[in-house]
Specification:
With about 140 residues, the chain is an alpha/beta fold. About 55% of the residues lie in helices and about 15% in strands. α5 packs across α6.
Length: about 140
């Protein structure tokens, strides 16, 4: 089982978020017990921004067991097609292409996505299994 992880869950865990930290940590632990947990380049980059330097960030990701997983051409293309569909249906620019890259990476290259953003990913990546730490 390969689980892609969303930035929100990592920030919950690393920041010890008072509302979601424990639930996100428990969901992450469950996913790690069931297989690999990966972060694509968007999640990796967004999470790195929460750290002061590279070394502590890489050490923290390794300590959690999170592995870097680059998007393939197929998943990047799916992200573009899905974003285009979103915009054509009147979707505002609230959702940027990064969100679609995360969803498409999980849909094409993984078995499921660990995220708190259940509604959005379900709507645009309907076949993608979601693990929501808040449920």
């Amino acid at each position: 089982m390969i689980t892609a992880i969303d930035t929100s869950v990592l920030i919950d865990v690393f920041g010890a978020d008072s509302r979601f930290g424990v639930a996100s940590a428990n969901a992450l632990r469950l996913c790690l017990n069931e297989g690999a947990v990966v972060a694509n380049e968007v999640v990796w980059s967004e999470t790195r921004g929460a750290f002061g330097a590279d070394a502590p960030f890489v050490q923290a990701m390794q300590a959690l067991g999170i592995v870097f997983s680059a998007s393939t051409q197929k998943s990047a293309t799916l992200a573009g097609v899905t974003w285009q569909r979103y915009r054509a249906s009147g979707g505002p620019r609230v959702r940027v292409i990064a969100d679609f890259l995360i969803g498409a990476h999980a849909a094409v290259q993984c078995d499921r996505l660990l995220t708190r953003d259940r509604g959005y990913y379900k709507k645009y990546f309907g076949r993608l299994a979601i693990v929501d730490p808040t449920t």
